[in-house]
Amino acid sequence: MVRRTAEMILASSARPVLVVTGHQAADVLAALADLPLSFHHAPDFAEGMSASLRAGIDAVPVESTGALICLGDMPFVRPDTLDRLARFHSEQAAVFPTWQGKRGNPVLLARSLFADVMMLTGDQGARALLSAIPDQVAELPVDDPGILRDVDRPDALRQTL
Fold first, then answer.
1. Alpha helices, H only, the chain
2. What's the alpha-carbon Rg for the chain, to the nearest Å?
3. Residues facing 67 on adjacent strands
4. Backbone angles phi, psi at 131, to 5 degrees
5. Could you tell me the sign of the dihedral formed by the alpha carbons of 65, 71, 72, 74, in that order?
6. Tens of pLDDT, residues 134-155
């Protein structure tokens, strides 16, 4: 699943592609070893999602104006959706893709939010942070139901391939 997700991201124009490892890091590295990716380990991954998010944001090159936060369990997001998000320029601090009015992932975070992301703790992502600044969050309608589909079990992946 993580390989399929990485291949979909690599099929987009978003660069660089950074992979944050944590639990089962050796398995993830082995599954992705031959792909042109940059790996960054979150040593405190057991703390929760915030640890991985902080590790990824910390690895974003200084010249990048933002980051697309892609989730390893969402292999159905189409590359053109990633391209649209990456090209979307806004005065907003964050952009969510929407499909049929529902917010999904990945989310685009502007560099202006990076310091706040680095303060997150526990098993929370950026949603809590973004809910506190609704006037700084934009939505980008996309024709991609994959933004709503995460895979929690291997059989769910097989059923849709």
1. 2-10, 25-32, 49-59, 79-87, 114-117, 127-131, 154-160
2. 15
3. 109
4. -70, -20
5. negative
6. 999 999 999 999 999 988 776 6
0.85 surpassed by pTM: yes
- Whether residue 157 contacts residue 75, with contact meaning beta carbons closer than 8 Å, is answered with yes
Task: Kindly list the domain boundaries of the chain, sorted by start residue.
Answer: 2-160
Phi, psi of 125 (to 5 degrees): -95, -155
CATH architecture for segment(s) 2-160: Alpha-Beta Complex (3.90)
Place of tokens 């849709």: 160
Instruction: Express each pLDDT in 86-116 by its tens digit.
Output: 888 777 899 999 999 999 999 999 999 999 9
Q: What whole-number distance in Å separates Cα of residue 9 and Cα of residue 70?
A: 8
Helix (H) / strand (E) containing 41: strand 38-41
